[in-house]
Amino acid sequence: MIREILLELKNISKAVHGLAGSKVRILDKVSLQINKPAQAGQIISLLSASSQELTTLLKILSAVEKPSEGEVILSGKAYNKPEGKIAFIPSNPSSFPWLNVKQNVEFALNTVEDTGSKVSEAILLTGLESYEEHFPDDNSLGFRFRISLARAIAAGPEIILLDEPLKNLHGETKKEIFNLIKDVAQKINVTFIIASTNISDSILLSDRIILMKRHPGRLADTIDIDKSKDVNVHSDYYNSVKTEIDKLLLSYENVPLK
Prior knowledge:
By secondary structure, the protein is α/β, with parallel strands linked by helices. It has a single domain (5-254), classed as P-loop containing nucleotide triphosphate hydrolases (Rossmann fold, 3-Layer(aba) Sandwich), CATH 3.40.50.300. It has helices at 51-61, 101-106, 115-125, 141-154, 171-187, 199-205, 236-254, and strands spanning 5-17, 23-35, 42-47, 69-74, 77-78, 86-89, 159-163, 191-196, 208-213, 218-224.
């Protein structure tokens, strides 16, 4: 069966001004095609040894930042301004401490029919039910992430971009957010694209991992995770995938870009 294309990147490049007026190339001719998920959602990780290129690419995908060259195509149409169809959650997710959870989720939503049920569904999906009137603590990264994810879900996006969502989380909170992302991907037809510098998290969380070279950022190899295998940190399959990724990332550092 031919799958419909969800997202296409066409030769995305990004250069910024460096010292003494020089130009520094952050991304170089990044091209990618992602199909729509067949039934449930999907989780795709962009994995690199450097976070700068990853964050820049996510900002361009969400139209928060413009590329120097190239274009982003979503469901066959150019996506060049924020319209809610691609949601972006930064590595430090935001919430407004003067608004309660429900008001935070409603914030910046367009006035659309049935907004109330969309907000309620998003709150339920992210485990925030019974916390609707609660005012968030800005020190709680896990709680802030749930609010940001609920806000993104309520807007009805086709893609949710996560910039290293697990990087600053530890212990039980990290485990909860890890499971939350997987659970949401199974329950709604949305594609998660996650920027990560953590090999282990990427293997355990993703359906597909796309490796990126750095300085400048270029997409390199793609690894599909076989979900029929036992994917845990003690399994032979996990160790074989991790070894393969380790070797590839190391080769990018030692071999000049062609």
